[in-house]
Design brief:
Distance between the termini of chain A: 11 Å
CATH architecture of the largest domain in chain A: Beta Barrel
Radius of gyration of chain B: 14 Å
Shape of chain A: elongated
Largest sheet of chain A: 12 strands, antiparallel, barrel
Order of helices and strands of chain A: HHEEHHEEHHHHHEEEHEEEEE
Strand order of the largest sheet of chain A: 1-2-3-4-5-6-7-8-9-10-11-12
Number of strands of chain B: 9
Distance between the termini of chain B: 42 Å
Structural class of chain B: mainly beta
Helix content of chain B: under 10%
Largest sheet of chain B: 5 strands, mixed
Number of strands of chain A: 12
Shape of chain B: elongated
Strand content of chain B: over 45%
Oligomer: heterodimer
Number of domains of chain A: 2
Structural class of chain A: alpha+beta
CATH topology of the largest domain in chain A: Porin
């Protein structure tokens, strides 16, 4: 019954979230916590998307021999800094004064849980994973130039429009004009001066042409009723907005901020806490991972392309694995290194990663003649390659699928096939009325 | 909707004849970029770039006509969900504008203000 309700939510969420008209595009799930718990197969952690709260429900289709096919795993990632306002200007946002500022702003915490953490004897146990990550962006001279260019263009449009709107509203509010013709005549000089002085248009003659075009088109919009002037004024401001191309400038600037070209570095940590007896008092930190992920986004016609590297150190708790995975070979120290190439398009993204692994353990090998402990070193190497495809059902719901060959798992080392379908749902800071859970009749 | 106009009418700020009036525009949300034009009675109209303050004159000079304050604002950063702006006269909050970005990422905010004598 619970399962059927969960599927109703999954099926309805895309439609429901479309109605929210959220504007920050979400990316496929990639939190450190879900990564270390094995809820996602890729080793390369894609940089964090921009949602303050992000959650993912995973549908892991495992064959019958390995156990569950029920999608009851859960992951959540949370960026606390952006839950409050800080009055950051665009410049302060893009160019933090210190590295500490970057760390604080980009710090996100993740949590993932599963009831199907399989032990060596095939029993299922509960596991909780916790993670942290932050991002450093390294701006460059070209980036600064581009930001200054966009800032200048947007600022000019806003200045021109604010002046024209203010004078038109003043004339109407104070009844200094009695009809549309008088209004257009009265604001004509303001339009010419505002446009010309802003530098948006090169000559006074062009500024006058700009004004004449607005006046000519104003005949086509709903006529001015001085008793109810808002419909006319709103249409007039829309005309000016179009003529200034303000919307285009804004969208280009916004897109650039999301996809700044240059170099960034993600640093992440995650750990798994396992409850082998399904009792809270009895827990082990089974393994821990530390990631360094450098990324570079290209510019201009290759702006869809992103290259990510990965360096991951993974530590396995030898005592824990000896106790709960007897007879199964694990290596205490694992170093992963590799590369991922990602192409991000308007509605979908493709990525391919190749990662190598070097593993080693130091195992007890008795004692020497003087009683000193001896160790022997065991080594292994492995290789993983996975292709992923994600599609934005809406700006807030991403469906993604991964296929490939993973590192040999601790259990069933021959089972290296990856086939994972997941759904990621983003929440910004929805208003109270945005979410009406009663629609889903969940108890 | 990408752009929306918000009008706030019938605002007033009681001020004595000789008291100077300082308008403060404070962008509270992160990542706002904007420009404010202020049309007061007479010819001393002024402007504010982004957040800032401006002396708009003394009380006696602001009587009669309605003063218009127009802010053209856009929010550019993906982490922010709203546009929130405070308008203050001499430190006193006269209007706080808030809109979700799901409603409008670019907004024109228009305040109609009278300055009656005490």
């Amino acid at each position: 019954m619970k399962l059927s309700k969960a599927w109703i939510v999954l099926v309805m969420l895309p439609t429901w979230l479309t109605a929210q008209e959220k504007l920050s595009k979400l990316q496929p799930p990639s939190s450190p916590a879900s990564g270390i718990l094995g809820l996602q197969p890729t080793t390369v952690l894609a940089p964090k998307s921009y949602q303050a709260l992000e959650t993912a429900l995973f549908s892991n289709f495992i064959n019958n021999n390995s156990g569950s096919i029920v999608p009851n795993d859960f992951a959540l990632e949370f960026t606390p800094y952006w839950t409050q306002n800080h009055s950051l200007s665009v410049d302060e946002y893009l160019y933090p004064k210190s590295s500490i500022d970057q760390v604080i702003r980009n710090s996100s915490f993740s949590l993932a849980s599963t009831q199907h953490f399989q032990l060596g004897d095939s029993t299922m146990s509960n596991a909780l994973a916790f993670g942290y990550r932050t991002t450093f962006y390294f701006g460059n001279h070209k980036d600064r130039e581009e930001v200054e260019r966009f800032t200048g263009l947007l600022s000019t449009d806003q200045k021109v429009k604010a002046k024209i709107v203010s004078i038109a509203e003043y004339l109407i509010a104070n009844k200094e004009i009695t009809n549309q013709k008088e209004l257009m005549a009265a604001i004509g000089a303001t339009i010419v001066n505002a446009v010309y002085e802003s530098g948006k248009i090169g000559s006074l003659k062009e500024a006058e042409e700009f004004m004449k075009d607005i006046v000519a088109k104003s005949i086509l919009i709903p006529p001015l009723d001085t008793a109810a002037p808002d419909p006319f004024l709103d249409s007039l401001y829309s005309l000016i907005d179009q003529k200034l191309s303000a919307e285009i400038v804004f969208n280009e600037f916004k897109t650039y901020i999301r996809e700044r070209y240059g170099f960034s570095l993600d640093v992440a940590f995650a750990g798994v806490l396992n409850f082998p007896a399904n009792k809270f008092e009895s827990s082990y930190i089974a393994r821990q991972s530390f990631w360094i992920t450098p990324a570079y986004r290209f510019k201009d016609k290759f702006s869809f392309l992103k290259i990510l590297g990965v360096l991951r150190y993974e530590w396995y708790n030898a005592d824990y694995y000896n106790a709960y995975f007897p007879g199964i070979k694990t290596y205490e120290n694992n170093l992963d290194f590799g590369l991922s190439v990602a192409g991000e398009f308007r509605k979908f993204a493709l990525s391919f990663e190749m990662v190598g692994r070097n593993s080693h353990s130091e195992l007890p090998a008795g004692t020497d003649a003087e009683g000193n402990k001896l160790f022997r070193k065991e080594q292994n190497s492995d290789f993983q390659y996975i292709a992923s495809f994600s599609y934005n059902l809406t700006e807030q719901v991403v469906l993604s699928y991964s296929l490939g060959n993973r590192f040999e798992p601790v259990l069933n080392p021959d089972n290296t096939l990856v086939s994972l379908l997941s759904l990621n749902i983003g929440f910004g800071s929805p208003a109270k009325n945005d979410i009406d859970w009663r629609k889903f009749n969940l108890r | 909707m990408m752009h929306k106009i918000y009008r706030y009418r019938n605002l007033s700020f009681v001020v004595a004849d000789e008291t100077e009036v300082i308008l403060s525009v404070v962008f509270k949300s992160d990542g706002d970029k904007g420009h404010t034009a202020i049309n007061i009675p007479g010819s001393n109209d002024c402007e504010i770039e982004d957040s800032g303050t401006q002396n708009i004159g003394i009380g006696s000079g602001l009587r009669g006509d309605t003063t218009i304050v127009t802010t053209e604002v856009a929010n550019l950063i993906p982490e922010e969900d709203e546009i929130r702006i405070e308008y203050r006269f001499n430190g006193q909050l006269i209007k706080e504008h808030v809109n979700l970005k799901s409603e409008a990422e670019r907004a024109t905010i228009i305040l109609y203000i009278k300055f009656p004598a005490p």
